[in-house]
Design brief:
InterPro entries: MASH1/Ascl1a-like. The protein has 134 residues and is of the alpha+beta class. Helices cover 43% and strands 28% of the residues.
């Protein structure tokens, strides 16, 4: 059992991580909206993907997963397939948002770990989502 102060500290840390994630996504959005070259957009990409190929990012934030997907409008997967992967890996989707900028689709999905004792392996989720979207 965590003390109330520990819970507050954990909540503060979680909020700071979310704010950091929002800032990263805002920077990515600006880069895409400006139509800058591939070299300047790569510094924001955690994987070797460029904006011309699908991009998958999975971040573990305590008992929450944040999944960011970027793909073209001619995507070869559905949002339901992404949700199915997350659920099969032991997470429950809390929210899913998307936006379209030019010819790119940006998805941000937040999922909560169903059983915190067992957890979710972010690398396994990342691998399965890469296989799905690429």
């Amino acid at each position: 059992m965590m003390s109330q102060q520990d819970q507050i500290d954990q909540a503060i840390t979680y909020i700071a991580q979310l704010k950091e994630g929002v800032e990263v996504l805002k920077r990515r959005k600006e880069v895409v909206a400006q139509g800058t070259g591939e070299s300047s957009s790569k510094k924001f990409m955690p994987t070797s993907c460029t904006l011309k190929t699908p991009m998958v990012e999975v971040r573990e934030l305590g008992s929450t997963l944040e999944v960011t997907l970027i793909s073209g409008l001619q995507k070869n997967f559905t949002l339901q397939e992404v949700i199915n992967v997350l659920e099969e890996e032991g997470a429950q989707v809390v929210s899913a948002n998307y936006s379209t900028i030019d010819d790119k689709l940006f998805y941000t999905i937040h999922a909560q770990v169903k059983t915190t004792r067992l957890g979710v392996d972010p690398s396994s989720v990342h691998l399965r989502l890469r296989q799905l979207v690429c």
